[in-house]
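[Automated response] Your request has been received and processed.

Submitted sequence:
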Amino acid sequence: MRLSRATPLRPLASILCLAACVLGCDPIEPHPDQSRFDELCGEFLAWYLELDPVRATELGVHDWDDRLPDVGAAAIETVAAEWRDWLARLEAIPRASLEGHAYYDHRILEYGIRAALLELEEVRTWRRDPNFYNSLAARGAAALIDRQFATLPFRADALRARLAQFPRLFEAARENLDDVPRVWVDLALRNVAGTASFLSNDVPQALRLQGLDRLDADLFAAVLEEIDRAVEETQRFEAWLRDDLAPRAAGDFRLGADLFRRKLLYEEHFDVDVEALREMNDAAIADYRTWVEREARALDESLPAKDVMAKITAEFPASDELIETASRFVEQAR
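Generated structure:
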């Protein structure tokens, strides 16, 4: 199986439980299918981590810290075929022949692969949500500065290489995005502006605190220049979202009952009828309201619950003031 450096998917945390299959097995002679499954798990994890270099960095695997994934349409089509190949290989191993953890890991991996295919081919976030691309940009940079897992020269050079790939990332976004819900564009505009600010302010500040000024002069200059270019590319993407995509964004964000049910099954391992889920939700809301009313009476029996809640929330910042307030507290702490 060829290792692909194509498009990443949103990480499937449950898949990583399969590492147990790679780390060891029972001391008794395993069933031949057990050996095949262990081998498949090892190959799959290596493929998956190279597939998503940003997620690999976040998980502590640093073989591809200098890369962003290729999220062009052709690459995504290629990787979808590879996911189908993995599913075919897995289905060739009878789950009933496995014992212990492997019996359950087989199902975890199956649902993880099906969730990935559902995302690529039917949900199609890469076609419909600008935040998919913004998240890759922001996470790709943050993963290299949030934790000092290696020397600063190593991480700074990897950051420079990742930031240099922003033009390719955002060009793929401009080519791919279609049938986008307007509410997702509006959300992306706020998030992309935040990413530009993060790159412009927080990244250089964090690097300086970690010793950027003491780096080799050429690397120091190259990193700062690449940050400036990445900010410009991010702002260009923001302008495109605002001026080009937003006026024509008329997609529907609703998944529909069948797609929602399968997404819930494959991602959460929860198989339930949509109407039954609605009833569970309504019951949970009713229970919460009962709890709020009980606690409100305990605080002030003379007022309705909503008025008690209003008095409590008035003591704290409004939602649009939270970031500013938190930033002020951070500065005071410094």
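Summary generated for your ticket: Residues 128-256 form one domain. The chain has a mean pLDDT of 90.
If you did not submit this request, please reply to this message.
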